[in-house]
Amino acid sequence: MKKLTYKVDKCLGCKSCEIACAIAHAKTQDLFKALREEVLSMPRKKVFSAKGKSYPVSCQHCQDPKCVDACMAYALKFDQEKGMVLHDEARCVGCWMCVMVCPYAAIRPNAKTKIPVRCDKCQDKDEPACVKACPTGAIIWGAVDEEGILSSHQTK
Amino acid sequence: MDDMKTKSIDIATQEMLKKAREENIKTSWDRLEAQLPQCGFGQLGVCCTVCSMGPCRIDPFGEGAQVGVCGANADTIAARNLARKIAVGASAHSDHGRDVAHTLSLLGEGHAHDYEILGLQKFKVLAQEFGIDTNKPKEQVIKELSKKLLEEFGRQEGELVFTKRAPKKRQSLWKKLGITPRGIDREVVELLHTTTMGVDNDYKNLITTGLRCALSDGWGGSMVATEVQDIILGSPQPIRGKVNLGVLKENYVNIVVHGHEPVLSEMAVKASLDPELVKLAKSKGAEGINLAGICCTANEVLMRHGIAVAGNFLQQELAIITGAVEVMMVDVQCIMPALQEVATCFHTKLITTSPKARFPGVIHIAFEPQRAYEVAKEIIRFGIENFSNRNKERVNIPKQEMDLVAGFTKETVFQILGGRYRATYRPLNEAIISGRLRGLAGVVGCCNPKQTHDYFHTALVKELIKHDVLVLQTGCSAIACAKQGLLVPEAAKVYAGKGLQEICEAVGIPPVLHLGSCVDNSRILTAASYIIEEGGLGDDLSDIPAAGCAPEWMSEKAITIGFYFVASGIYTIFGANPFAVLGSKNLTDYLTKDLEGVVGARFEFCDDPMQMAKLMIAHIDRKRNDLKLKPVMYSQE
């Protein structure tokens, strides 16, 4: 199982990951064209800043996901095998409960489509777009053990 | 080799890239790869670094911040960024023009002994244009002319003299819009002023000021550069030459001149023929001295002396990678900082010559117009001494070289069409009016590793000439097409439509005309004005069935050229990378739609050469239609 982790000291706050994420989830998959789509794509990742440091934040796919518990429409479920919280958009009623309970503020409400969006680890790609986009290597896409911990050589 | 084909269509380039890979030498293509993905904010032009409240970015997907700390929105930020690039591009061309005018002034004062007035005819015409009595002694006229030319840079009020070359209707439109350039330096400074924190926040007004600045380049600085170079270095005449890396010679001392200002390289041409130096070269075991050029310095010495062109912008590193270059002498502009590193992989000595363009740790031999020939000789001698350091085992010169004809100017090109006895623009105008020629296209600009090198230029130009559009070229674009064999008269038979073929055969010109370096784009402006003056094709530059394109551009200078073309009424397409403006829909729409209603021309962004050709041809046909001209004589369909 692979997971996104971050070396916060390396993050420069350039937000390239946000842009790459929005493009990866746009219909046209192209920066210039994506801006002309009818409904603008929304990044599932945000760079927050606190005490002079930048923190890229996206869904951690928690093993004990608060969002799944909070979902009244049963639109969310945790898939053990994939290690991911899956979102059935057809069932989603847009109540924003998941948004409110997320301890990371990693689930993002899309006001236009009335459903929240979250990191899907770019399932359709060989690796998440944000990893490729990061110019400093602050985003790590690495295998984790059952506890969700990165093996030591990957954290260097 | 397949991925090489996506990098360049030029075989010589592919071969050198292969060698570079084998020897682990990095080129611009590798460095581009290391830069990917490039910053989205930067590409969209919505990153502002003007003041230290920032840097600020506008979220292009509409969710995050929509204004910077000062309150500037995407429109203001993108327009300010673009305006700054226009100012930088204009300053590059214009400062070049100033240096050349300064050389003329030194000549007048008797301090630049190595130069003389070689373009006597043009010298007189130009002096008259500036209201100088040409019956006075020559030295006096030179002094007065150079003073007046230099005054154009520092002028505060009034109008640049060269703007009077434009058709009356265009001049009055500029006046009405308040964009007639006053002084060359003034327009650059004023534009930069308007872009600082808290000055001009109206994207349309920023573009208006930008158009004025660009005009001060096209009808000012660049035109001064072209005209004065023609005076002190001689007016080009059609001349044969050779192009591509194959022009480097294995048993010769190879000296490559690279950059933009020809005043020194002109002396290098002379020095390379100096019997004393040739003798020295032979004593070192070489067969002689071989001079070749890269970029616009190459175009300048090609236009006047038929000196071989080693390649265009992206080939500067590759020339060194042949292992056969003793000295690369550079002046200003488009000189990659990477050259130094590449040169250290070989015996090649990089030599800088301009106080404005230094590289840390690189040999600097300062050029002074007062002792120009001496400096040139010193540099060539350096190359000769370095010949013995060449490692013959590492020499691989690609075989590719191609013939070309260059040396067309606004004076020669169309007079050729008229023949010696009818040296006017009439035959050209008639050709367009009768429909034998569909129209004219200017295809110019740089190369860019983001695109397949040379492919955009050549595919576009082939498509244009096939549809009977006569193509005028300058800069690296001309070199690209020359390498593919489009700049020889015989190319007409292979590639041109029937109408253009008839013209090329009748007067023996190539279907693609090489007008010189990037500052020589000003030749296109004057030529277009002559066309209007000749009559029958409207009364403003925007009436001519003509279009411009920079398919593989990369430099700020290209943006400025685009702006003075559009401000002069010529529809202009920019290749794969749009200006960094797409982050502002308003600004993009203004440039690509609304400007038409303001200056009679607009920009277009397009990333496919076939589509570019289609758009340019459609535009030319629309202009033909507006002029109520007959349909083209030989339809393709």
How large is the count of helical segments of chain A?
5
**Order of the strands making up the biggest sheet of chain A:** 1-8
Query: What is the CATH third-level topology name of the domain at 1-58 and 119-145 in chain A?
Result: Alpha-Beta Plaits
Extended strand count of chain B: 16
Which CATH-level-2 architecture of the largest domain in chain B? 3-Layer(aba) Sandwich
What is the 3D shape of chain A? globular
Provide the residue-averaged pLDDT of chain B.
95
Tally of separate helices of chain B: 26
Distance between the termini of chain A: 19 Å
Query: What is the 3D shape of chain B?
Result: globular
Largest sheet of chain A: 2 strands, antiparallel
What is the SS-derived class of chain B? Answer: alpha/beta
Radius of gyration of chain A: 15 Å
CATH topology call of the largest domain in chain B = Rossmann fold
Order of helices and strands of chain A: EHHEEHEEHEEHE
- Estimated helix fraction of chain B: 40-55%
Termini separation of chain B comes to 37 Å
**How many domains of chain B?**
4
Q: Identify the quaternary structure here.
A: heterodimer
The rounded Rg of chain B comes to 24 Å
Model description:
By secondary structure, chain A is an alpha+beta fold. Chain A has a domain at 1-58 and 119-145: Alpha-Beta Plaits, CATH 3.30.70. Helices cover 18% and strands 22% of the residues of chain A. In chain A, the strands form 4 sheets. Chain A has a two-stranded antiparallel ribbon with strand order 1-8. A two-stranded antiparallel ribbon of chain A has the order 2-3. Chain A has a two-stranded antiparallel sheet with strand order 4-5. In chain A, a hairpin with a 4-residue loop joins strand 4 (76-79) and strand 5. Chain B is an alpha/beta fold and 637 residues long. Chain B folds into 4 domains: 2-57, no CATH class; 74-233, Up-down Bundle (Substrate Binding Domain Of Dnak, Chain:A, Domain 2), CATH 1.20.1270.30; 245-394, Rossmann fold (3-Layer(aba) Sandwich), CATH 3.40.50; 419-626, Rossmann fold (3-Layer(aba) Sandwich). Chain B is built from 26 helices and 16 strands. A 6-stranded parallel sheet of chain B has the order 6-5-4-7-8-9. In chain B, helix 5 runs antiparallel to helix 9, helix 10 crosses helix 23 (521-534) and helix 10 crosses helix 24 (556-567). The model of chain B has no long low-confidence stretch (mean pLDDT 95). Chain A binds chain B through residues 14-16, 18-20, 22-23, 31-32, 34-35, 40-43, 132-133, 135, and chain B through 37, 39-41, 43-44, 57, 59-64, 578, 582-583, 585.
